[in-house]
Amino acid sequence: MPGVTIVGAQWGDEGKGKIVDLLTEGADLVVRYAGGPNAGHTLVIPNKTGGHDKIVVRLVPSGILWPETVCVLGNGMVVDPLALSKELDELVGKGVWTEGDKRLVLSDRAHMILPYHLLVDGLREKGQFAVGTTKRGIGPAYEDKARRNGVHLGALRDLARMERHVARALDAWAPTIRAMGETPPTPADVVAAIRPVVDRLVNLLDDGSRVVDDGIRGGKKVIFEGAQGTLLDVDHGTYPYVTSSSATSGGACTGAGVGPTAISRVVGITKAYLTRVGGGPFPTELNDETGETLRRNGGEFGAVTGRPRRCGWIDLPALRYARRVNGLTDLIVTKLDVLTGLPHIDVCVAYDTPHGRVRDLPINDLDVAKPVYERMPGWTERVETARSLGELPEKARAYIERIAREVEVPIAMVSVGPQREATIPVRNLFA
Ligand code: IMP
């Protein structure tokens, strides 16, 4: 069975973009199944003058760089039509995608992020109950989906019908918007704002579930690309400091429209340390010089918002939890190079909680739990040129082996630098 799901095993930003890009070389279909423009992958592509250009994609899977790969925006996503159209402009401008190319498929059952979702997200983030969202309208769009006021992308096929759906949603949002001191838009305003991009997007709409099912049944290699990470999942994350979608592997089924039998491997991506953006508990956070070093060496600034990421030590109970709730079959460790030069590395192996010491992640007591660390020696040798585990400095290898042993998941790959080549392959994920 060819389906491989890639999930973030931490709080997002684990380097899924590079890994999906690498794996896409052997894949026919890449399907994003959750989230929206709150994710951000930086793509580095050759330009006409022999240099490189950077594009940040937020909605389109990074698989778009491979000319034979079909990319699907699954029904579990929330899609801002205006943000998507801007992204398409950039991809056309850089020669990555040609207008109308059906290599990009938009599920007609994905929900739209509309201007009132952005308005509400932004206004709430000014208030005392802010959770530090990306202000891209994600939460309010998923709220509408759950309370049956959402508007499918497929509604773009019939704007009069879309206007009626929008009117129902605005009727529910209007008191909230007014209470926050703003005037809600009219349904006609909303439709008018979207109208310029309608033809372009309607052309790409399809039944995403059928496209993926055809791929799976046709023996194609399919990657289900998760966004954000396990600890931001609406069910399994550090609620309420989470995103509003199913970032874990279960979301791949509902968010792409396939059953669990379509997926044979679940690959968790973890950094060699830990970061988080936005509010919420982070017990192994380092508010000191070491945290600053990780941020600087790892370039830990949000791809979407530019916010500095909070940095800390790796959390093995959290990775064991990620193994459990995702059913991980493989683990990929990224950004090992960022740890080079640290005199020692503290590894969180357990937690002291009001109920005693635990090896599991105390997901409901994270704000009071105290990490229990074991200290491992650091290394000073550069790791970027290693292409096998044997070529790593002994202490770096010991660190990787310890992670695999404690999480009880085999390592499939180690990333030792941002470039495609700076990678140690260990297991073939499509075998
Ligand atoms: P939202 O997804 O914009 O609603 O934000 C909810 C929480 O998820 C905030 O703490 C965000 O910082 C976090 N978040 C959302 N997307 C990402 C991501 O791609 N990487 C890291 N954190 C994210």
Secondary structure layout plus pairing:
Blueprint: E1 3-8, H1 16-24, E2 29-32, E3 41-46, E4 52-57, E5 70-73, E6 78-79, H2 81-93, E7 104-107, E8 111-112, H3 115-124, H4 138-146, H5 159-179, H6 187-194, H7 198-202, E9 205-206, H8 208-217, E10 222-225, H9 250-256, E11 263-271, E12 274-276, H10 289-298, E13 310-312, H11 316-326, E14 330-334, E15 344-353, E16 356-358, E17 370-377, H12 394-407, E18 411-415, E19 423-425
Parallel strand pairs: 1-10, 1-11, 2-5, 2-10, 5-7, 6-8, 7-9, 11-14, 14-18
Antiparallel strand pairs: 3-4, 12-13, 15-16, 15-17, 18-19
Helix pairs in contact: 3-4, 3-5, 5-6
Bound molecules: inosinic acid.
Short characterization:
This protein has 431 residues and is an alpha/beta fold.
* Helical residues, percent: 25-40%
Write out the CATH superfamily name of the largest domain: Adenylosuccinate Synthetase, subunit A, domain 1
Uncertain ranges: none
What is the general shape?
globular
- Please give the count of helices: 12
- Please tell me the overall pLDDT: 95
- Which secondary-structure class do the elements indicate? alpha/beta
Distinct small molecules bound, one entry per kind? inosinic acid
At the fold tier of CATH, the topology name of the largest domain is Adenylosuccinate Synthetase, Chain A, domain 1
User: Approximately how much beta-strand content do the residues carry?
Assistant: 15-25%
Please give the CATH architecture of the largest domain: 3-Layer(aba) Sandwich
Radius of gyration: 22 Å
Main beta sheet, described?
A: 10 strands, mixed
Strand line-up across the major sheet = 9-7-5-2-10-1-11-14-18-19
What is the number of independent domains? Answer: 2
**CATH classification, class level of the largest domain:** Alpha Beta
